[in-house]
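Worked example (supplementary).
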Amino acid sequence: MSIANLNEPAKLTRKDFESDQEVRWCPGCGDYAILAQVQRVLPDLGIPRENYVFVSGIGCSSRFPYYVNTYGFHTLHGRAPAIASGIKMSRPELSVWIVTGDGDALSIGGNHLIHILRRNLDVNLLLFNNQIYGLTKGQYSPTSEPGKVTKSSPEGSIDNPFKPLVLALGAEATFIARSIDVEAKHLQEIVRRAHAHHGASFVEILQNCNIFNDGAFDDVTNRGTKADHQLILEDGKPMIFGKDRAQGIRMNGMRPEVVRVADVDANDILIHDVKNPVLAYLLGQMTAPEFPTPIGVIYDVDRPVYEEGLQEQLRHAREQPNAGDLEALIYTGDTWTVS
Amino acid sequence: MSIANLNEPAKLTRKDFESDQEVRWCPGCGDYAILAQVQRVLPDLGIPRENYVFVSGIGCSSRFPYYVNTYGFHTLHGRAPAIASGIKMSRPELSVWIVTGDGDALSIGGNHLIHILRRNLDVNLLLFNNQIYGLTKGQYSPTSEPGKVTKSSPEGSIDNPFKPLVLALGAEATFIARSIDVEAKHLQEIVRRAHAHHGASFVEILQNCNIFNDGAFDDVTNRGTKADHQLILEDGKPMIFGKDRAQGIRMNGMRPEVVRVADVDANDILIHDVKNPVLAYLLGQMTAPEFPTPIGVIYDVDRPVYEEGLQEQLRHAREQPNAGDLEALIYTGDTWTVS
Amino acid sequence: MNDGQTTSPASKDTQEVETVVIRFAGDSGDGMQLTGTQFTNASALAGNDIGTLPDFPAEIRAPAGTLAGVSGFQVNLSHHEIFTPGDNPDVLVAMNPAALKANLEDLPTNGILILDREAFSDLNLKKAGYAQNPLTDGSLDRYQLFSLDIARMTTLALKDSGLSNKHVLRCKNFFTLGLMTWLYQRPLEPVLNFISARFAKNESLLDANRRAFKAGHAFGETSEMFACQYEVRPAEIRPGTYRNITGNAALCIGLVTAARRAQLPLYLGSYPITPASDILHELATYKGYDVTTFQAEDEIAGVGAALGAAFGGALAVTTTSGPGIDLKSETIGLAVKTELPLIVCDIQRGGPSTGLPTKTEQADLLAALYGRHGDAPVVVLAPSTPSDCFEIAIEAVKIATKYMTPVYLLSDGYLANGAEPWLLPKIEDLPDLKVEYRTEAQGYYPYVRDPDTLSRPWVVPGTPGLEHRIGGIESEYLTGNISYAPMNHEQMVRLREQKIAGVAREIPPTELIGPESGDVLVLGWGSTYGAITAGVRSLLKEGLAVSQAHIRFLNPLPPDLGDVLSRFKHVLVPEMNMGHLLKIVRAEYLVDAVGFNKIQGRPFKVQEIISRVKKLLEEG
Amino acid sequence: MNDGQTTSPASKDTQEVETVVIRFAGDSGDGMQLTGTQFTNASALAGNDIGTLPDFPAEIRAPAGTLAGVSGFQVNLSHHEIFTPGDNPDVLVAMNPAALKANLEDLPTNGILILDREAFSDLNLKKAGYAQNPLTDGSLDRYQLFSLDIARMTTLALKDSGLSNKHVLRCKNFFTLGLMTWLYQRPLEPVLNFISARFAKNESLLDANRRAFKAGHAFGETSEMFACQYEVRPAEIRPGTYRNITGNAALCIGLVTAARRAQLPLYLGSYPITPASDILHELATYKGYDVTTFQAEDEIAGVGAALGAAFGGALAVTTTSGPGIDLKSETIGLAVKTELPLIVCDIQRGGPSTGLPTKTEQADLLAALYGRHGDAPVVVLAPSTPSDCFEIAIEAVKIATKYMTPVYLLSDGYLANGAEPWLLPKIEDLPDLKVEYRTEAQGYYPYVRDPDTLSRPWVVPGTPGLEHRIGGIESEYLTGNISYAPMNHEQMVRLREQKIAGVAREIPPTELIGPESGDVLVLGWGSTYGAITAGVRSLLKEGLAVSQAHIRFLNPLPPDLGDVLSRFKHVLVPEMNMGHLLKIVRAEYLVDAVGFNKIQGRPFKVQEIISRVKKLLEEG
Ligand SMILES: Cc1ncc(C[n+]2csc(CCOP(=O)(O)OP(=O)(O)O)c2C)c(N)n1
Ligand SMILES: Cc1ncc(C[n+]2csc(CCOP(=O)(O)OP(=O)(O)O)c2C)c(N)n1
Ligand code: SF4
Ligand code: SF4
Ligand SMILES: [Mg+2]
Ligand SMILES: [Mg+2]
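After joint prediction of all chains, the assembly is encoded as:
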């Protein structure tokens, strides 16, 4: 996100980003925590409140914009990226945020998602992944695990799930990250990093739906076990994790594996590099129980930003002779005059 | 594709797969060659002609089913994978082929494409990639190169294209391959391999649209230069290419590079392994001019097939007491009788 | 009291009532839907005629205690034949202040009001937006108020249950249900059986709920609060076996039944959406009936897969609500063009756009008729009552396969979730819907037509010698090959129109309730049936020359409808939309029909129908 | 002859004709569209009134020489005011046997037939499906046949051009054009100028085409074949500056003009589809006018992005044809609900489904009106002629921004590609459409309304102090907060309806051609204007009491329309569909209007209108 509006903004606080609408998620829903972290980060980004726009689809997660006291558009199921594209293209100076769910973004909205990523508009997309359809009361989603028993899969789902990070990479995303609803600090940091990225930022946030899919992320959120199940990524740092930072990731030929750090040459441990797509692919592929769950910034590269290319073409066209002249528009080509 | 129907089929010939409809592509279009190769392969697959179904969307490429004398459904722009899913789920014994274009599959049809791949229905998808919208007379497509000047991008396209193989991998495809319209033998082989794969087969076929995008693949089709620009993959074989097979691919850290074979240790040259997703990712990423264009089977792994999981659940349910009994269906729950 | 007891002893005075309307209201977490459903089932088993109306809160669970979180369930039980869940409740059970606030205006003066006194805490009062406590400010004086300590009594009843306080309080609804069971002399068994089945896996919950239920019952019996019990005697009901059923459930059973009778596998391609999702859920449990359900990535894929399955030879169904109908329209157009059978169920909800997802409306009729580009005619049917959803599903399957056409079924949120007793059909009376695919090559063309129905043959892939291609481009008459010829196009457009028009021969003569001609004909369709029927019966009792016609075929229209309409001075068309059927009958028959439009996300009240008709009569 | 010569000398006899209809037909590769267009331009410059109709083959280029590959272009030039491209050609130029076969039935006996003899090879005859050579079997005896050696003469003219044989033969069309230019005494300059511009980058092609053109002209002059030249004198045309324009081009210019006058950036979100793609192509060239075009991934994204841009404050447009309309309907419903301005251009083509992509039809009217679930009213406008597309675009922008509503523009393939002379507006006469976003916080609510228009304010992100959220769920009156309240919903549904109904105040009185009352009113909309106008004028000349009303507002309807209709004994509604407007006027006014429906992918002929009206008059 570029900071386009440099008018000295009044010092904003979290309160400035709370709307007057009562927050209506189930008590205990992970969405509350995400809302709180985003509201904490927004005042610090140096953007006037009126220049923020939150765009969402349909789903529990997509109610988000109602609670943030900025401009907001609660659109249609799956269509937020399309609508946000129009906003950003027509108003590049705005800070555009897309809030979506695993069903909204990856099921009905899959096409708009992959296209906004490949085009690389400078927007931030926060995908609240609770691995379930919350709003429609608990059907499996494209991220639910195989065999999941839900209302619509009484004998267990036979769908193989997407790995959201890998899909984003396949769609040419330039920024890919993951965080967790309850990891307040980490989540804030990732939201900041997403904002800082110049281009489309794809952030998967693991979010607990305590009504229809409670505990889906227990392994990575449970205080007792999380150290062994989170692989916290830092650019340029080795991929080490576990309670005593005893485990690491290394390559075995062209496949990654978990090793005990003590057992291997320290140089063999993979070093994270947010610019390397192959590493991003490896990390996106890692799933429990074989691997820890990577969190942090997985991938972060630069590529031309869509609306800037557009602005450039518009600017160039506006500099041509007769640009904007209606006479030249209408009175052109083979004309003839009758008198 | 599984061979479900084992009734001894009469010996079929290419002629059996030619319909009575005049083929109506522009003279010189690459689609003719693809049609010919597919018609050559079909008789050999041991499937009765009536068990083939060709399903397409809309586009020049999508006229394909009309010319193949099997069952066929020319559906809607982008929707062939959805409609084919219904055919395959309801009639798993049929051999279902999807024919689509780069616009049809990757633009409007992107969502159905990624979902059929992740579900892994046992269908074969042939994507004719001519990097242009042919039927609507020449707009840029999601695979057109940046800067492309077309009717809808008079100052050059600002869209960053998809890499179809990478997108397919991101969508969890289990079989990914690439061939070229004019490489008759290779194409036939790839069509056979796609058929042989048990699960969804994704095949990108580079196809020349001589009217709106002539020569898009000249580097890999021109007799003089193609040896240096094609990386012909074979499972278990080193990735060597070039006129005198003088060049190869090796890893430099976690990034691939082109090297002169003579300059490096022979063991450093990457060995192709169709089961390794990281290699598949590397190969899918390779684009000219930095890299040669990989052709052949990029990825080929096994994963449960969607309609088989479904059949299993249906079979199991049918074995339950009262299965299929209307009395049990209607006269159930809290009933009461008034006399 | 023993478990085995079927009715509770009438140990207090018993007052007989003909009909009673009870509304249970509470927080989403209070289990009001379950309470209402159980009370309904018990009443049905007691032989009453019944009608129910659940009223869900907006989708997301609002914070407990707020107005947004109120969930309601209304049941009408009667010694007579009834047609609706009742206009206004005679009895309101409100489990918290928000429930009271949201529902009180519907309770008539002197109505029975049952409250949980403890729930009227300062916090809850504030959440509900009460400045003062209505229990103490006199504002409830005009009702028969029963202000009980439900929470405390439930806690007492379960004091040694070993359950946590939270779990104990969850049993409040069964206490309440027990009390109401006593008050209306409902049998205990059905609820006890339900508890046994529901909590089979958790002995302590089973025991707790059973105890709470019985405690509520005993409280009614022993406390001094209630001067009498009420009795609603069994209705005179057509003999047969009944089951209480919602529209969505009836639709599922109808589709499965039809598929079995057609000897076709059933294939559902769908994407979840309120209030249609339950059809997907329920059909997913019928795999043993050769039912495949596919939760697609979106509505377009849902209908696309269904169309593919139809091409493959399955009985194809897609289910959705308004927003999904918009998305499916292109594919339904392809189904029209390729002439494949397809059942499209639209469980209408409040629109436009996302609208009111949990509320009812009838505003998709014009979209069903005309919501596709080009001239793309389809058959449109609408069920009138929850149990009619069963019948109409069978009708739809018959027409779709006989005429090779998409058929829309326009249900709505009210029918979908409302319940009524369903007189179960005899299995041997179910129609034979056997479908034959064509396998004969002699004389075959993909678009050769049956001279009567104008239907084209259904040939499924796998049939040797009949290989063919179909698609969305205009087809040549007979061969089905692509044709851009001008006259062929005109012929085909007219043929498709004519084929659908021909479905009119399937429509039975329009039944009138009331005289054959008269002052006012009330013409309805869909879920307004109940309110209109009750209203017209009442008007007829008053001796007015009012009749009712309720149509289930919206396209084509019944062949005799024009004649029927012409026999009345006024035609009134009540609809839960801005006048969709009204437009159609005016265009078709040039009658100056008048619309009566209620667009509030809730059904007509009987009284509203009555008043409107009277107004029309007064106007002359 | 010198280049500078403006008209060719009338060295042979000159026969004056009032009106002539010429159809150029050939293979897709023969350049017939270009030939026709150039001939048209020259005729326009010569002062004739003109009307044109291109007729493209199906999308994919069929093999050369086949019927499927025939491309045609018809032009009507007249000394009078004309309204159509003419019913049947007086002159048919057919460049190969397939072109002859596809078009001959339209040529009346004694019509002029110009052929390229050499193209009638055995192979070409076979491709066209001729068993015998029509040049020799006497089947062409009833026409004035000119069988020329076009290919050979072109080759001769270019023998030292250095071009390959293939390129030489590509110049055949300019030879033909030269000949026709001579025959109808058109000026040479426009074509020569065109050649200079078109081939500016290729000297040898420039020279070759110029030479071929002149050779064709000289051939007419010198050969003995043509006994006379024809003269079509200039028409009496309103003074002013003209330009020949297609509907799609006029629409683009209209949108850009309106955006400039509104002082808004123009944003187009679109996805290519025949016959709308050219609007995307053309608008893409207007970036200098602050026009952004976005080729989206599909139609849903196209309209979604447009709606986003509208929220952002742009003048948002989406363009498509039938299949795209289906897909966009959900998002248009959201635009209705959020009350944002949005122009939806539907360039109709033959349906249903993929239908006839390159043919014209008017069968999306009902989908435009009702193709969204729920009650979701929009404004629907339709241009009558190619140049009216300019006017209607301006009208649409005015209404969309003034009333904060989606506006449909229903053009069609015939208007889109057909051309007519456009009297260019004076820049200073263009209306001021200046739009003001609201920035004032005082008294602001997202759904506060202008008391006259009932429009809500347009507040764009970036405006301090007016931060707000909108969405698809029903809004509370005024605040726009989510509201599920029953009465609020009814109020909002009615309000949206009322707002659109109020647009009627923008509609000028309905203009009648013909008497104010009489026997027959021919009521039309859209592209049937030309044929109806010509037909009614002709009937009026015959002294019949026939009038014409052509409406541009389909929703709301003109306020005086009911009155107008009531003054005629019969109302005839010709439409290129199964009777869409017919349904609407019958429902609205209860008049027994009669439909006249042609669904052949091509426009009405004047004669068809005349005959149908007469039949109606005969029936009494
Ligand atoms: C076109 C359309 N189809 C379906 C729905 C119903 N629907 C609303 S939200 C939703 C899924 C929500 O799941 P997700 O995106 O994961 O969000 P969550 O509620 O879990 O946060 C569905 C199917 C809809 N509103 N619109
Ligand atoms: C819903 C819909 N939108 C748009 C179109 C127009 N259309 C037809 S084919 C096509 C693109 C074709 O491109 P591609 O898939 O690459 O096929 P090709 O013609 O290049 O083989 C488009 C935009 C359509 N037929 N339907
Ligand atoms: S249903 Fe799940 S995701 Fe939705 S608000 Fe409740 S807890 Fe959160
Ligand atoms: S337009 Fe291109 S892709 Fe289409 S038929 Fe012609 S050459 Fe082939
Ligand atoms: Mg979710
Ligand atoms: Mg293409």
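Two points are worth noting when inspecting this output. The radius of gyration of chain B is 22 Å. Residues B 59, 101-103, 130, 132-134, 141 surround magnesium ion (ligand 6) (CB under 6 Å).
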